[in-house]
Amino acid sequence: MSLKGRIALVTGASGGIGTAICRLLASQGCSIALHYNSDQDGSDRLWEELEEMYSSQYGSKFVAHQADMGDYNQVRKLHEHVVNALGPPTILINNAGSTGGHSRVTSVDSVPLDDFEKTWRINCGSAYLLTQLCMPAMESEGWGRVIFISSAAGFTGGVVGPHYASSKAALHGLIHWLAGAYAKKGVTVNGVAPALIEETKMLPGSSAELSSKIPVGRLGRPEEVAETVLWMVKTSYVTNKVIGVDGGMFPQ
Description:
Blueprint (H helix, E strand, L loop, with lengths): L6 E4 L5 H12 L3 E6 L3 H19 L3 E5 L5 H14 L5 E4 L18 H29 L2 E6 L3 H4 L5 H21 L4 E8 L12 H5 L10 H13 L7 E4 L7
Parallel strand pairs: 1-2, 1-4, 2-3, 4-5, 5-6, 6-7
Helix pairs in contact: 1-8, 3-4, 4-6
InterPro entries: NAD(P)-bd_dom_sf (IPR036291), Sc_DH/Rdtase_CS (IPR020904), SDR (IPR050259), SDR_fam (IPR002347)
Catalytic activity: a (3R)-hydroxyacyl-[ACP] + NADP(+) = a 3-oxoacyl-[ACP] + NADPH + H(+)
EC number: 1.1.1.100
């Protein structure tokens, strides 16, 4: 399936996984809206790289937009800016995520309710809102892809904390409902649940320590998550799935 000319919105584009996803989608001819929150330098570097490599080759356009995904008004403005700059996206990659400043939580008392709710807004609420905003254009076109970057913590509880695990598990329920509701309208909805991916900010320990616990004996690479995402974007017969990219740690 050709993706040339498709418009994609990737949240959390300046992080390791987000950057790898953007590079792969751009290599397929997509125009991309790069969302970032605080890493403007990383976003600028990625924008320059994609412009140089793909704008003349495919006629693609790339734009970057800042938004705090914990603020729903900013999320709405993000979507508005993307539509005005590129057109309505029919590929939505909900990748932005946060641990809320807490990791290796051992007591439920360690995460205040405000931090719990903010983590949910960033990890789940903003993804739901963007899906609401993008879905009408996908329905109208009869083609769309919504992919949520979840976490193995959504299956297992993980080691970050209850705020993070519950927000990621909620994405799985959202995927299952959306996939059933929109399958006959040409829109597929899937999730990728990574664990222990290098070049990310969510590694709970040293590379050597963590690698020893993974069946394949190494950390995952952002590109391996991105390749799974690209496969989900290109196929039309896979929907309602959450696939772990975890080196064999958690059988499904």
